[in-house]
Design goal:
Shape: elongated
Strand content: under 5%
Distance between the termini: 81 Å
Helix content: 55-70%
Number of strands: 0
Number of helices: 8
Structural class: mainly alpha
Largest sheet: none
Radius of gyration: 34 Å
Length: 175
Amino acid sequence: AATTTTAAAPAAPAAAPAAAAASTDAAAPAATDAAADALQARRARFGLPSTEETEEKKKQRAERFGLASPAETEEKKKQRAERFGIVTPAEEDAKKKQRAERFGVPESASKKPKADSNGKPAAAAAPAKPALSEEELAKMKARAERFGSKPPAVVLSAEEELAKQKRAERFGATA
């Protein structure tokens, strides 16, 4: 025999969409106040301590057990890093900045390009390759023939570009 239970829907979630729909951009602070009031009412209903009480209890506990403040904790971390020779991220960034200045690399170029959604580097951030002269292309092609290998893709694509340029000169550029 299966027993069925009926659950009463809580009143607060049903009222929240209505309140959200009624609020406009001008009434946004009022909606925030209403949400804070609703949160306080919920805390009182379930006997939960307020945010201020929770923070006060945390401070008292820290004092009772001698816990360090966040500033003291950071200072201890720095001292430990110095003692054991650990390189901190701040030191690493400073070294990178010094190196970039020493070699004349602009700061934006020293950063890694952002990746797209697939984790591959963004195509727009890829540096442009310098164009090869006809002489360099001829050298590369001759070397490939001499050693019996296929010419590099750079040579083939550059040859195609040269052919397109010559054709455009011969027949006139068309748009």
